[in-house]
Amino acid sequence: MLGQGKVADYIPALSGISPKKFGMSIHLISGERFSVGDFKENFSIQSISKIFTLSMAMALDDDSIWKRVGREPSGSKFNSLIQLEYEHGIPRNPFINAGAHVITDIVFSGYSETKLAILELVQRLSANKSIDYNEEVAQSERETGNRNLAMGYFMKSYGNIHNKVREVLDVYFHQCSLSMSCQDLSRAFLYLANDGVMPSTGEQIISKKDSDRINALMLTCGMYDSVGDFAYRVGLPSKSGVGGGIVAIVPGQMSIAVWSPGLSESGNSLAGTFALEQFVNYTGKSIF
Ligand code: GLN
Fold first, then answer.
1. Against a cut of 0.90, is the pTM above it?
2. Residue 47 beta carbon below 6 angstroms from any ligand 1 atom
3. Of residues 11, 6, 38, the one with CA closest to residue 257
4. Which residue's CA lies nearest to atom 6 of ligand 1?
5. What is the pLDDT of residues 247-271, one digit of tens each?
6. Is any atom of ligand 1 closer than 6 Å to the C-beta of 43?
7. Contact 169, 148 (CB under 8 A)
8. Orientation angle between helical segments 49-61 and 165-177, nearest 10 degrees
9. Is 95 in the pocket of ligand 1 (CB under 6 A)?
10. How far is the centre of ligand 1, averaged over its atoms, from the C-alpha of 147 (Å)?
11. Is 137 marked active-site?
């Protein structure tokens, strides 16, 4: 499994990474943590960032989000345009790219310094002030991001992007470029295992209800177009990114981050998925 699959190569900054890298980190809400392999190595979190912005948007906006984005698995690729036309510029869910653009647009409307607000949240959740955007990755995303821009302008034509498309997409490309380790990520998402509260600080990041809802969306829409297979094999609310990272939540207990850059056809880490499957087989920690 390790070393197999295809490393994302749509931008040079991602293509040079060895598919043999593997790291895993587990943070328990009790404060204990366990890590293995390349768990301290930073990688591009890509679509995992969509959980941070969704949390911010839900904290700001509540139910009006769902007039602009759906809550169903898409059954198509994460960057598909065709479904958007059929569905009049309303993306199927907040984790496909178009849905994430709308969510970033909502966050953009809510914060004057949007990139800074996202970065500060991520640093606070991870307790790591050195986390930053990778400008080289963000710039490559922008230079090659024509399909993302096309989706943005298309939704703008339906009035579903409220701000300037290029400005919203600049934030989106930056959030995708966030460079973090498994250790940072598993700590950052503990609030989703603990009813919206960071266990170490007691800070309420989102309400319990929103935390439950984000977990539900991760379970049904978080793993691209193989979310059904992933639920069958692993059975945990999870979100992947094309950088090879996956975060998985065991509600009430722990947050897990795993990273290995070789991807399956649908864009999920092959070794990461296998590791989570083995973890659940050994521990019985699936939610089912
Ligand atoms: N930056 C990538 C894109 O927008 C992220 C995609 C992903 O991880 N699915 O295409």
1. yes
2. yes
3. 38
4. 47
5. 999 999 999 999 999 999 999 999 9
6. no
7. yes
8. 130
9. no
10. 11
11. no
| Spatial separation of the C-alpha atoms in residues 31 and 42, rounded to whole Å | 22
Which residue of the set 137, 171, 172, 177 is catalytic? 172
The CA-CA-CA angle for residues 178, 116, 190, to 5°, reads 60
Q: Do residues 22 and 7 make contact, with C-beta atoms less than 8 angstroms apart? A: no
Pairing of strands 43-44, 178-180: antiparallel
Q: Please list the residues that pair with 263 across neighbouring strands.
A: 6, 269
Helix, strand, coil percentages for the chain (3-state, nearest 5): 50, 15, 35
| Whether residue 62 has pLDDT greater than 80 | no
Q: 224 catalytic, yes or no?
A: yes
**Buried/exposed 175-198: b ≥16 CB within 10 Å, e otherwise:** bbbbbbbbbbbbbbbbbbbbbbbb
Distance 213 CA to ligand 1 centre (A): 22
Query: Which amino acid is it at 228?
Result: G
Ligand 1: atom nearest CA of 224 is 9
* Residue whose CB lies within 8 A of the most ligand 1 atoms, among 141, 176, 180, for a mutation test: 176
| CA distance readout (Å), 273 to 93, 139, 150, 248, 261 | 22, 29, 31, 10, 11
Ligand 1 nearest-atom number relative to CA 46: 8
